[in-house]
Design brief:
Length: 317
């Protein structure tokens, strides 16, 4: 008796390996996958401007980098003694105007370098709901806790989402024509927008993304993280206490699917060794002076030497 539906996944033709350089952009689910990549010592950069939820914010970030935008005083503002940018998450906030401008420009420049060197780009879309600043009529990446009366809330049309996806791919391929793009929809439920509204939002993202993939098949791949949570897991036990974000068990499950379909199988033995080393480094012995523990440390050191000799970029500190 089968008690679970399984989402069919076609493995990627150009999988990630330890020679790859990965850039991950998008919602907090992008951070979850990036954390797993970092745990297994893949070279990975994630969200230089912090978490970005909607396609216009992501498109803007990439365009800033590609066009070498220089952020000036017109691109930042002060609210409650904190300097912020409507193009970035509050993680980049600073107490000083010069500090935030320096940070934005440095991160944008470094981001362009990362894009030009990347083999894979993972894009996770979170929502099609956006906020537009009334004064400037600009769609913002983050409201920074400014009163909601200063914004209008809008649902991006499928066409608007599709245009942003086209801009994202066009700009990426300007600096890196052969980059492999992995698209996914975040399974995080944005129910603060409303239950029906969250479904509308996901529907617009899914419709736009699959239309884009239909038109642009070369070096594009869809990983069904949203469908895995909605159709395979389908239970609140796979969500955190807020009942919105997938919990560790769900993320581990999705990661296993990602590894099976997006990581080169030749790398699995290395990943297993890295996992053993990570667990060994976090191990706290009851008695560190026993012969058995010294042998354990010797074996751990041998594994570390083997890994670092083959992959000197790895960092286990």
């Amino acid at each position: 008796m089968q008690l679970q539906t399984i989402v069919p996944i076609i493995p990627i033709e150009n999988p990630i390996d330890y020679d790859s350089k990965v850039v991950s952009i998008g919602s907090c689910f992008a951070v979850n996958i990036a954390d797993r990549l970092r745990q297994f010592q893949f070279r990975n950069t994630v969200n230089p401007f912090g978490i970005l939820f909607h396609p216009i914010a992501i498109s803007n970030l990439i365009q800033f980098a590609v066009e070498n935008k220089q952020f000036t005083s017109e691109d930042v503002f002060i609210h409650n003694e904190i300097w912020s940018s409507f193009d970035a998450h509050s993680d980049l906030n600073e107490l000083d105007q010069e500090a935030i401008l320096e940070s934005l420009n440095h991160k944008s420049q470094t981001f362009k370098e990362n894009l030009s060197e990347a083999s894979h780009f993972i894009l996770t879309l979170g929502t099609a709901w956006v906020y537009k600043k009334l004064e400037s009529q600009k769609i913002v990446a983050n409201c920074h806790k400014i009163p909601q009366k200063d914004f209008t809330k809008e649902l991006l049309s499928i066409e608007s989402c599709l245009n942003s996806l086209k801009e994202i791919e066009q700009n990426l391929r300007k600096v890196n024509p052969n980059i492999q793009i992995i698209y996914t929809i975040s399974p995080v439920r944005h129910i603060k927008d409303g239950f029906v509204e969250n479904q509308q939002s996901k529907a617009h993202l899914i419709s736009a993304l699959h239309e884009h993939l239909l038109q642009n098949k070369h070096l594009n791949y869809y990983f069904p993280s949203y469908e895995i949570v909605m159709d395979e897991l389908r239970d609140y036990r796979f969500f955190g206490k807020d009942l919105i974000h997938p919990n560790e068990l769900a993320i581990d499950y999705i990661w296993e699917k990602f590894v099976s379909n997006c990581i080169h199988p030749n790398n699995l033995a290395i990943m297993k060794m890295i996992d053993e080393v990570q667990k060994g480094l976090s191990h706290r012995p009851f008695n560190p002076y026993t012969e058995a523990h010294q042998q354990f440390l010797d074996k751990l050191a041998q594994k570390l030497d083997t890994l670092l000799e083959q992959y000197p970029f790895m960092n286990f500190r």
